[in-house]
Amino acid sequence: MGMTITEKILAAHSGRDLVRPGEFVNARVDLMLGNDITAPLAIAEFQKMGAERVADRARVALVADHSTPNKDIKSAEQCRVMREFALAQQIEHFWDTGRAGIEHALLPEQGLVAPGECVIGADSHTCTYGALGAFATGVGSTDLAAAMATGECWLRVPESIKVVYRGELNRWVGGKDLILYTIGRIGVSGALYQTLEITGETIASLPMAGRFTMCNMAIEAGAKNGIIPPDAETERFMKSVTSRSYQPALSDPDAEYVRTVEIDCAKIEPQVSLPHLPENARPVREVRDVTIDQVVIGSCTNGRIEDLRIAAELLKDRKIHPRVRLIVIPGTPQVHLQAVREGLAEIFLSAGAALSTPTCGPCLGGHMGVLAAGERAVATTNRNFVGRMGHPKSEVYLAGPAVAAASAVLGRIAHPEELS
Amino acid sequence: MKLRGRVHRYGDHVNTDVIIPARYLNTTDAEELAAHCMEDIDPDFVSRVEPGDIIVGGEDFGCGSSREQAPLAIKTAGVSCVIAASFARIFFRNAINIGLPVLVCAEASAEAKAGDEMEVDLASGGIENLTQGRSYRAEPFPEFLQEIIAAGGLAARVRRKLAQGS
Ligand code: SF4
Question: What is the domain range of residue B157?
């Protein structure tokens, strides 16, 4: 019996020929990640462990992205803890305001994750990197501390669910719609503790940006990791960001899956997930007359240049609805710069949007667009839990950049076709 | 070790954003975090909770972000353990790593009512609802996790390992 791509990567990183679901391993970690919310706690634990130096300063990535540019004095202190640690430990991959992007958009862009690698991050959306054919999973601060001290992380080998996508995508349907639809089908705990292996002809022709969006939200189905078999598109992406070598893994034809889910993409229309769970996915056309106060386009889910291009295409020569606030947040400084060069920044500003430096900000209700009681937002982010973007009585509707942009113009949740 | 306390009952998908909202994550001070525990779904929790009390949740307890501040806030608020039908995986590993006992038991979770008196025997996984006179057995921890728990959490285990190494 063969192994899945996830099992192969975990076996290779724990010195085994074979691992099976349910087994526990201590895996060697190729890259470990922390941010300004999780790293300070990890640093405190690291010190309590009696550790003096990180096991490998080239394998640690620290990103000041959540509450930055520092939103208040306490956040500034948290960032300082991380900055001082990064300097003292000579951490190679540390980014502060101005150079920092949202971690899960930034690390792939910097070529720090490659197919076949094992990545942990003290952030639940670390699963994003599965899009590159890496094993990547979110952990906690103590896990990050232990990994910084020892270079390893304990992991239970997950069972895998195979999701097969077939058929051509409809106009205005992208990775976000596919993953919202999928979570709608299997539920927010539909893949609890398991791997979502995302495959099929539709995925083979899906560009990298859409793949990142899909794997990013694997955690929203409870999954340990999402993973896409590396192919020519992966290789093209890797060549564009790094020249280093790596060892891709692919699932064996006789690998075992706990279940297979088949998805006919021709039937999928642009989706929106209603409050307060990502599994409340519906076709946008079925969600009528929902007026909105704010639109956020950005985050580790949809803050890439491809996402901004889609939004700009719809916002060009248009103004947003007078009652709506539109906040556009490029995922990284490179995306921001590209948006300026391509003229997208001008389109956003002319439409009436606020264009922000990269930050998580409103995605977690931190700053840069927090909602008041009773307010409603459409966001290209990944969570619509109670209070996620601000007041516990506010609401978040999740969607892709096309629906978000169309909704900003019309002042209510709208299908992009309504603009033409 | 036996734990005993009153039940605080919640439903399915209790996420880390309501256990400790992001607006309070600008600190790592455990007491400060505990002062806002469960604030967005149960504003009275902090004034009601007493040392030893037990949180009972439904499916997928602790879903959402990886913030370790969530189990830390619960533990520091005085909660002795969390019983749920299932846990989100990062919350589960964080709880194990920081030494907050978490027990998976769908039956005990389904039948528990707010205010019930419960007793939990961590060694055997036995759960007793003293108010209802019902007993249950939680899923035993795999050996690998028992070792982390016995060591007093992951930090303690690594500390020992590092001390032996040097
Ligand atoms: S953008 Fe949102 S989901 Fe992504 S890392 Fe930041 S806070 Fe988390």
Answer: 2-164
Residues A237 and A344 in one domain: no
User: Could you give phi then psi for residue A136, rounded to 5 degrees?
Assistant: -140, 130
A241 Cβ contact list (under 8 Å, min separation 6) = A108, A109, A110, A111
Say if the Cβ atoms of A388 and B94 lie within 8 Å: no
- Structural domain total, chain B: 1
Put simply, the answer to whether A143 touches B154 (Cβ < 8 Å) is yes
Residue A268 covered by a domain:
no
Residue of A142, A359, A393 best to disrupt the B interface, most CBs of B under 10 A: A142
Q: Which whole-number Å values give the CA distances from A194 to A218, A262, A283, B12, B106, in the listed order?
A: 10, 17, 27, 19, 19
Name the nearest CA neighbour of A376 among A355, A399, A402, A356: A399
Residues A345 and A203 both lie in one domain: no
Residues A257 and A317 in one domain: no
- Nearest Cβ partner for B90 among A138, A385, A387: A138
As a whole number, mean pLDDT of residues A218-244 equals 98
Number of compact structural domains in chain A: 2
Q: Each residue of A297-343: pLDDT tens digit? A: 999 999 999 999 999 999 999 999 999 999 999 999 999 999 999 99
Q: For chain A, how big is the Rg over CA atoms in Å? A: 20
Closest Cα in chain A, distance from residue B133 (Å):
31
Q: Specify the pairing of strand B2-9 against strand B117-121.
A: antiparallel
Chain A residue with minimum CA distance to B59: A189
Q: Which residue range(s) make up the domain with A317?
A: 273-419
Domain boundary among A263, A286, A321: A263
Q: How confident is the model at residue A269 (pLDDT cuts 50, 70, 90)?
A: very high
ipTM of the complex: 0.93
* Residue A245 and residue A284 in one domain: no
Let me know whether A281 and A371 are in one domain: yes
Q: Are residues A65 and A128 in the same domain?
A: yes
- Both A106 and A204 in one domain: the answer is yes
The dihedral region occupied by B128, where left means phi > 0, alpha psi between -120 and 50, and beta the remainder, is beta
A199 and A101 within one domain: yes
**DSSP codes of every residue in B41-59:** T-TTHHHH--TT-EEEE-T
Give pLDDT, residue A160: 98
Residue in A closest to B160 by C-alpha: A49
pTM to 2 decimal places: 0.96
Distance from the Cα of B111 to chain A's closest Cα (Å) equals: 21
Taking CA atoms, A202 is separated from A69, A206, A209, A265, in Å, by 39, 6, 14, 8
pLDDT, tens digit, 9 for 90 and up, residues A84-133: 999 999 999 999 999 999 999 999 999 999 999 999 999 999 999 999 99
pLDDT band at B166 (very low <50, low <70, confident <90, very high): low
